[in-house]
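S1.2 Input.
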Amino acid sequence: MADQENPVFQIQRVYLKDMSLEQPNSPAILLEQEQPSVDIQLGVEATPVAEGIFEVAVTATVQTKIKDKTVFLVEAKQAGIFEIRNVPEDQMGPIMGIACPQIVYPYLRGNVADIINRAGFPPVHLAEINFQGMYEQQQAAAAGQASPIITQ
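S1.3 Output.
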């Protein structure tokens, strides 16, 4: 009986859920000598799969441009399946918004760098992310505690 009360947090699987690479302006753009600009967007999503089983996915969009033309665009989603049981409800958000993404993100970083390298470009290494800070910002924004709007 006591076994059923102990908290459970286990990784069931980490996998690459989706990845795409586009080079819409190749080969002409590859002859450009100008340094491209790089835009990186990240996101986290958590979805219940079954009782006590959750999928947590981290997404990245990496787009490089020279002027207004795309050099390459990579969209990737790395996911993990986690068993989370007997955890207080107030701890579920931080577990799925901080702990799980911290486990999944290194795999995403490696896959993004690899696909960009395989496409013939120097790899783009995604920076380390403070998922706790990201989670706290999202919580503050959801609670309406974001920067106050000043009207004149």
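S1.4 Remarks. The chain has a mean pLDDT of 90.
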